[in-house]
Amino acid sequence: MRSVGFTNTQLSARAAYLLRGNDLGTMTSAAPRLYPHMWSWDAAFVTVGLAPLSVERAVVEMDTLLSAQWGNGMIPHIVFANGRDGYFPGPARWECSELAFNAPRSPQTSGITQPPVHAIAVQRILDHSRRQGRTTRSVAEEFLDRRWGDLVRWHRWLAHARDPQGRGRITLYHGWESGMDNSPRWDAAYGNVVPGADLPPYTRADLSHGADASMRPSDVEYDRYLWLVEQMKRANYDDAKLPEVMSFAIEDVFVSAIFAVACEVLATIGEEYSKPRSDIRDLRAWSDRFRSGVAAASAERNGAARDFDIKAGRWINTETIAMFAPLLCGGLPRERERALVKLFEGPRFCGHPDLKYAVPPSTSPISGDFKPREYWRGPVWPVMTWLFSWAFARRGWTERSARLREEGLRQAQDGSFAEYYEPFTGAPLGSMQQSWTAAAVLDWLD
Ligand code: GLC
Predict the structure, then answer these.
(1) Is residue 1 one of the residues assigned to a domain?
(2) 3-state secondary structure 211-266
(3) Residue of 23, 56, 95, 181 with catalytic role
């Protein structure tokens, strides 16, 4: 392990170089080999990294993503790059343009969604454009005028199709929709997903890209992931049918908190740029509803937020980074929030004495579920560190935010821009040259 890292200037130059290398023209691949297409929440974070480099290019990234939006308003979790293979399940497996009346014919997409962080990206585009001349400012403003309606439709779809009963929490029908694919949060719910004998055969592509199989989800997990896709296909990806047909349905507290804060961000943008009052009113109402929904999911004792397994009718108690969802959006009573901050900074998370850097691991090292090298079961994901540092800054917690940034940057000093890191040794893991890791670094160093 290198002990002397790059200077900040070198590091941001390398991060910019990385994004340029992963640029496919009008989209940035999530990573060069393992993820050769555009992922929805990756694209938003990538936009955050592109905005200080080029507002124009950042706008293109969001335009590409939004051009794949479905008729019902959903932003799909993958937009497939034309003519690129190398990922499974690809368009031929999802069959969205054939089966789903809401899906666009082109570009091709997956049939599920991902966390709604996009308002953050839009805000960054606008913020950076204000530092620039008139031409760049008008590129950003034209983008907002062109896409405002789409952004509101996206949020409206989440608020309606994914919270039909107005509980203030987003329902997910696939663990991949959480962005934390194999988090222990979903283990119990996946236990109830029993792949049918008629699950069409498949070959995984993720293992043939040099990825270490022991760090990736297992084959049993993969069968379940694909069985859920099969269930959706058989229902033609129809929002109205999913609640009935899916064997996996959970209310995700982390996605709900992101949604609460994203609605607030979008509402503020709407006010600043004189968008329709009714849109702003809806966004504020959704923000309030979801903030309350997140608070209602948090334990009285320590504030830790829980997901809800709809199929089993019970709260999910795992010790993962999602416990801290209320810190993203606020809304907890003061004492409870204080307890939750203490948990975040204490020995069960960022303050664990053996951590190489004081950043939140995806699963608590104290938990029985903890696996230091396994994807969302323990490793540190730099983009999550970024999200918390962003949210803390927004909430006025300047020092706390700066601490995460500093530690996140120390971790990034190795210059690998890894997808995730071993929490104790700091070893880079998963895919290297991961776009959103570079984006986080670029924003931190801006
Ligand atoms: C993995 C992650 C997901 C991410 C994708 C592309 O599937 O779990 O959150 O969007 O890779 O980076």
Answers:
(1) no
(2) CCHHHCCCHHHHHHHHHHHHHHHHCCCCCCCHHHHCCCCEEEHHHHHHHHHHHHHH
(3) 181
Global pTM exceeds 0.90: yes
> Is 42 a residue of the active site?
no
pLDDT in tens, 103-130: 999 999 999 999 999 999 999 999 999 9
Q: Is residue 2 one of the residues assigned to a domain?
A: no
The predicted pLDDT at position 214 comes to 83
Residue 215 pLDDT > 90: no
Q: Tokens 């009113």 label which residue?
A: 281
As a whole number of angstroms, the distance between CA 46 and CA 386 comes to 12
Domain membership flag for residue 45: yes
Residue among 18, 19, 29, 35 whose CB has most ligand 1 atoms within 8 A, to mutate = 35
Cα(135) to ligand 1 centroid in Å equals: 35
Nearest CA to ligand 1 atom 3: 179
Provide the domain limits for residue 194: 8-445
Q: Is residue 165 part of a domain?
A: yes
Could you give the CA distance from residue 59 to residue 95 in angstroms, rounded to a whole number? Answer: 28
Task: State yes or no: is 419 an active-site residue.
Answer: yes
What is the count of structural domains for the chain?
1
Residue-wise pLDDT tens digits, 9-68: 999 999 999 999 999 999 999 999 899 999 999 999 999 999 999 999 999 999 999 999
**Ligand 1 pocket, CB under 6 A:** 30, 35, 39, 41-42, 179, 181
Tokens found for residue 12: 């941001």
397: CATH: 1.50.10.10
